[in-house]
Amino acid sequence: MGNVVRVLSTFALKGAIERLAGQYQTTTETRIAADFAPTLALLKRLREGEVTDVVILTREGLDELRAAGIVVAASCVDLARSYVGLAVKAGHPHPDIATEVSLRKALLNARSVAYGRIGASGIFFAKLIERMGIAAEINAKATVTSGLTAERLITGEADLAVQQISELKQVGGIEVVGPIPHSLQTPGVFSAGRMAASDRIAPAERLLKFLASQEVVPVLRECGLEQP
């Protein structure tokens, strides 16, 4: 396989990993071969026996794999955290979402809200609108999708897109309005570890050390992430 480290990562870190891959290959002569999917889809693949070198998931998802012995406990490290936010198509007005009251109004006034079916942010949002008592109204006109929800702004299927800010920023032609009020959410923490079945122990460990270093902080910030 040469100098390659295989990575399975949640979409939230796609932008950062893609930006860092070239820098990492230049300094280490090791290529990152990454595949990205929503958290629950990755968990399903890994439970069913797929093997990779490094896994990047929500902290909760990685904890499950660590408890099952699929990921080596001693290798696990927190990489980044991100808030769920809202976006609109570029040039469109930004609704006020600074408070729960204004967020509720913005969601109800939208023609359609795009959110994910199986990603961590979509699961959070589904619970949030239930808690706010507006689930029936929002879901009656929602665009429930998979992948990058902000793409639905470009196609005109939705007025608002909900996802981790780091995922919203991966789509061109949109503008991030801001995070859902911090009082309504706990930031998602994304963690990584080496898969127990990997036969590339040293390269995987080197990559994990790099991804958790201060060297990557500027790229994380550009991608809407911060170190935990």
Output the keywords:
25% strand, five-stranded mixed beta sheet, D-Maltodextrin-Binding Protein, domain 2, 2 domains, 228 residues, alpha/beta
Please provide a written account of the structure.
This protein has 228 residues and is of the alpha/beta class. It has two domains: 4-81 and 187-222, D-Maltodextrin-Binding Protein, domain 2; 84-184, 3-Layer(aba) Sandwich (D-Maltodextrin-Binding Protein, domain 2), CATH 3.40.190. It is 37% helix and 25% strand. It contains ten helices and ten strands. It has helices at residues 14-28, 39-47, 59-67, 100-109, 120-131, 135-139, 151-154, 165-168, 201-211, 217-222, and strands at residues 4-10, 31-37, 54-58, 77-82, 84-89, 113-116, 143-145, 160-164, 174-179, 188-194. The strands form two sheets. A five-stranded mixed beta sheet has the order 2-1-3-10-4. Strands 7-6-8-5-9 form a five-stranded mixed beta sheet. The two termini are 33 Å apart. The mean pLDDT is 94.
